[in-house]
Amino acid sequence: MSAVGAAECLSLLPCSVDYHAWDGTRAKGFQSLLTGHNQRLSYHQMSVENPGDCIMAGKPRLHYFNARGLMESIRWLLAAAGVEFEEEFIDTPEDFEKLKNDGSLIFQQVPMVEIDGMKLVQSRAILNYIAAKHNLYGKDIKERALIDMYIEGVADLNAKFRLLPVTPPDEKDAKITLIKESTTNRYLPAFEKVLKSHGQDYLVGNRLSRADIHLVELLYLVEELDPNLLANFPLLKALKARISNLPTVKKFLQPGSPRKPPVDEKILEKARKILKV
Amino acid sequence: MAAKPKLYYFDGRGRMEPIRWLLAAAGVEFEEEFLETSKDLEKLRNDGSLMFQQVPMVEIDGMKLVQCRAILNYIAAKYNLYGKDTKERALIDMYIEGVADLNEMYLFWSISPPNEQAAKMTQMKDKIANCYLPAFEKVLKSHGQDYVVGNRLSRADIHLVELLYTVDELDPSLLANFPLLKALKTRISNLPTVKKFLQPGSPRKPPLDEKNLAKVKEIFQLK
């Protein structure tokens, strides 16, 4: 146990220590993720004079609208990593103005996540930090390169889904056709091919990574649009089932979790009011 | 042992330019194979070289990497330009994603129909002057150091300075009220590797002209 780490906890400074560097009993594979959260608590109880004193890292706090948008991937990743978090919803234009005037948003935009003493904006910055912190970003830079390549493909398709609700009604059908084509002709085949190439249970490195989480999140979106789209991709369907059965993910998929429903007209109307567009 | 990285793209900035800047700044020599026609793109696709049928693609260390961020992240990490820990990386990522948003606006402006360009330019200049440059000037002011993050050179400096050159091309007056950014631009430009890249004859690409715009549209079958 590093002296620095203990001191940080005692002085109630934000703890920036890498928990896995402390983990003398590191479990293999995703077990450490499932129990990692609890391991963290017990380490801090060991490291302070009075166990109750360590308030070091509060739960991450998410600032966004009460909707999926660009925050949903962050919710999925935190949930999959077994990290409890709080959400502060922007419900009115005044809420948004307040955040901007606070100086909390470096580019005047959300998502913003308060985590480990930082006010992070830009979804990729937030996701990269969470993934690295919770050991979901591969074991070296080559694994990371593969993960990045896959998740950027996921992000490209995800963006098309995300923009669908704000497509003008007369263009919507054409857009849906394009998305379906992209999905079945470009993206799903690419990922099915990856799984086929190594025959392993996870996309990269034979263990759970953010690539699996982001892809499965996307597969749920695909299924929402049209379940038939997954018909010819048995390995992807199997991945979806496997990841969905991980305890943390299973919990996130249940009603009452922070997972958000699809965007509807009501949510759009509210967003327009808040953003004054 | 490792062959030089090989870049596959058209002979223009587009989405490959930040990769050229970063490799150059890191002192890495690279080769380029330019797509001249849509047939060249077809060939790459049929080869199975492009995971999502798209370029940029970079052959590096035995991998055929696509997706700019995957390529840039790998290069940055390999050449120690990505901060010393996850917290420095978070700051770097936050800043460079802001730069990327602005680059995206520039990219779409450059291929927009002429009648839409004026409005897009106004929007871009507004964001530059009122959102992004002030944010980065504030970062430099907050610590008074020579580099954006961690008191040493990182990809954040390279990507930001590349952006400042683009801003300067669009309208030099935009930089007028940002002395720390101007100083950063000068400092980074004087690093030997960057200085070399800024000289004529380097792999650095010029802005898109009409002839090349037509070429781009043909290669990517854009309207």
UniProtKB/TrEMBL annotation, chain B:
One of its GO terms (molecular function) is glutathione transferase activity. It comes from the Eukaryota. Residues 85-208 form the GST C-terminal domain. Transmembrane segments: none annotated. InterPro entries: Glutathione-S-Trfase_C-like, Glutathione-S-Trfase_C_sf, Glutathione_S-Trfase, Glutathione_S-Trfase_N, GST_alpha, GST_C, GST_superfamily, Thioredoxin-like_sf. Its EC number is 2.5.1.18. Keywords: Transferase. One of its GO terms (cellular component) is extracellular exosome. It is an enzyme of class 2 (transferase). Residues 3-83 form the GST N-terminal domain. The keyword Mitochondrion does not apply. One of its GO terms (biological process) is glutathione metabolic process. Belongs to the GST superfamily. Alpha family. This is glutathione transferase. It comes from Equus asinus (Donkey).
